[in-house]
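note to self: dont lose this again. the chain is below, predicted strucutre after it. 269 aa total, dont forget to put it in the shared folder this time
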Amino acid sequence: MAKRILVHTALAIGAFVSVFPYLLVVLTAFKTQAQLSSTHPWLPGTPPTADNLAEVFAGDFPRFLLNTAVMTAVLTAGQLVFTTFAAYAFARLRFRGRDVLFWLFVATMMVPSAVTMIPLFLIMRELDLVNTWYGLLVPYVLGTPYGIFLMRQFFKSLPAGLEEAARIDGAGALTILMRVMLPLCRPALGTLAIITVISSWNSFLWPLIITSGDDTKVITVALATLKIGIGVDYNLMMAGSLIALVPMVAVFIFFQRHIVRSVVLTGLK
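---
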């Protein structure tokens, strides 16, 4: 009993530490400037106000939210399509240099993304794609090494007999992929989709570098620019952060079973 109490106490403390920053976001978003300076951060403002949310929505924030949703949808669709084709080729098709090419591609996962930002920006500048949707999407819409590695390993775990039986029936490589392999890959596809949605929605560095106008600005960059004068309006920033958090919370609520399965499948914390 004592061990169980200690375990649950530790879990409760860990859960509180994890949830507390989000609680501060919610509480601060519904406070006025006067309440922010006169009350403790962990106490709600009395009475709460929705003026911060109204002020955020009165500006261009809805456009930035839509831009983020479009970017996330396009990147997720591109990842699922192109990553699946590339992973199937690396896992099942036979061609010269296949394994060498695959491991060279996977080796790029060891390179920090910040290292490739300047070369990517220079390439986009030479192609005249700076501050455009193409420049924002092209570097990541065609798949990532991690996604290809994940799907390739899942393809290799499927029984080869299924593919051989389909070939005996006259199916080609594309038919086998679409009608035999993909229905069996739903757990891996769900994992890849969830990871891509979360990473795309929270993407900051590349959108900050490649975009400068409001037409392509995403919500993370917009939050960083919510400043007045030489200070920061924390009430507006927390209101914007709350709006940005709502879609991710909805994803967690509706797809928590898939998120848990993705953690088991990938081994990620």
